[in-house]
Amino acid sequence: MALKRVCLLICLSLVFRVAPVHGVILNGTNVPKEKFVVYILIGHSNMAGVDLSHSDPVSIPNGWNYPVASKQWVLAKEPVNNKSAGLSGNGCAGPGMPFIKAMAAAYPDYYFGVVTNASLSATCRGLNTGNNSSGLDPSDNRYWDSTYLYDQIITSAKAVQKDAMIGGILCMLGTVDATRTNSTVCKAFSDDIASLAKFFRRDLNLPNLPFIMGEYEAGASGSFATTLPLPAIIRDQIVLVPSKLPFSATVNSVGIQMLDDHHYTGNVGQQEFAKRVVAVIQDKKFFPPAATSITLAPPMRAAAGYTGHWLLAEPGAMTLRSDDGAYLINGTRFGSARIRE
Questions:
Q1: If you ran DSSP here, which 8-state letter would residue 170 be given?
Q2: Per-block average pLDDT, block size 10, for the chain (341 residues)?
Q3: Which of 1, 120, 125, 156 suits a disulfide with 192, CB 3.0-4.6 Å?
Q4: Residue 217 DSSP code
Q5: Count of CA atoms in the C-beta half-sphere (13 A) of 208
Q6: pTM of this structure
Q7: Cβ-based neighbours of 203, under 8 Å, separated by 6 or more
Q8: Contact, 139 vs 129, CB < 8 A?
Q9: Angle between the 189-204 and 148-161 helix axes, to the nearest 10 degrees?
Q10: How crowded is residue 230: how many other Cβ atoms within 10 Å of its Cβ?
Q11: Could you please report the per-residue DSSP string of 29-86?
């Protein structure tokens, strides 16, 4: 039996060389992949944030941002009245900063990051035929498979995936669709949102990736008010999303403080929205992120007498099985399970 244990240790050392533990260095700290959770933020101006005077310029050590332009991790912050330095590069005082801080407070042993390209006047699938303040062509200013915004955010999400766990997608869309498209687009909105989530899951190879959708802004007024036909349709379509998309949920918007006719205030409204998102994540048990499915690999080349199979699962977890037991490796720790003497 002693010889078998020696053989096992030799085999484990070979495995570590073949499958190193992934992670990322953040401000001089080596953060393991399973301790760094990143969320994808997509949406229109309410996700980007427009209440610039209430931007949050105060960073925290475990809150990070991955700008889609520079593609380098930086401490998350939103310099006051500096729109281009906001989390999305398109605005400030959105829900990104309060969300990062709320998650860090709820789970202090983790690091959190966001990848966002929220765009002013953005839609899901339908073309914006009205006012468009994004600077993008309407065909580009939407989140649909292979469009500009979709390709931009999915490219960044894939880039960070090797070093971090993707925790989910946070989405705020609908007010632009409700006021600048048409009834056909609005009536298909829940199906289109469900399809959009499936595109992300497909391209990230995460079939159960949580999708969290902000409900239509209940305090919207004027041309955005839900007393009007198209906003009412979008409001009702959003709450249908969980019935059409597994591992999804919506965030209630009733009572959230408004800045104007369709945006939340940065210092109160967005803070409350972020708090509700974290509550949904906890209620639905969307945290910590689930590992990818375990798959059986071909037999390892015989090494030091080991002739079993190995199984690989994210993040950095591995299982060795042989005739005398199952041996688990997770990060830098390993132990035996059910060894037969």
A1: E
A2: 48 42 89 98 97 95 96 94 84 95 98 97 98 96 98 98 97 98 98 98 98 98 98 98 98 98 98 98 96 41 38 40 39 35 30
A3: 125
A4: -
A5: 10
A6: 0.81
A7: 154, 158
A8: no
A9: 40
A10: 21
A11: EEEEGGGEEEEEEEESHHHH---GGG------TTEEE--TTT-S-EE----TT-GGGS
Helix or strand run (H / E) with residue 181: none
Among 113, 189, 115, 177, CA closest to 152: 115
Structure tokens at 35: 């301790």
Distance, CA of 181 to CA of 54 (rounded, Å): 31
For the record, the structure tokens of 107 come out as 């789970």
The answer to whether 319 and 329 are in contact (CB under 8 A) is yes
Q: How far is CA 236 from CA 186, 215, 222, in A?
A: 10, 9, 18
For residue 168, the tally of other CB atoms under 10 A from its CB is 27
| Domains (range + CATH), the chain | 2-21+292-337 (no CATH), 23-283 (3.40.50.1110)
Alpha-carbon distances, residue 233 vs 43, 194, 212, 227, 328 (angstroms): 18, 16, 19, 10, 51
Q: Distance from CA of residue 341 to its chain's centroid?
A: 46
DSSP states along 263-310: -B-TTTHHHHHHHHHHHHHHHTT--SPPPPPPEEPPPPPPBTTB--EE
Residue recorded with tokens 């801080």:
101
Tokens of 51: 């209440």
Bridge partners, residue 169, by sequence = 40, 211
Distance CA 129, CA 123 (A): 10
Amino acid at 139: S
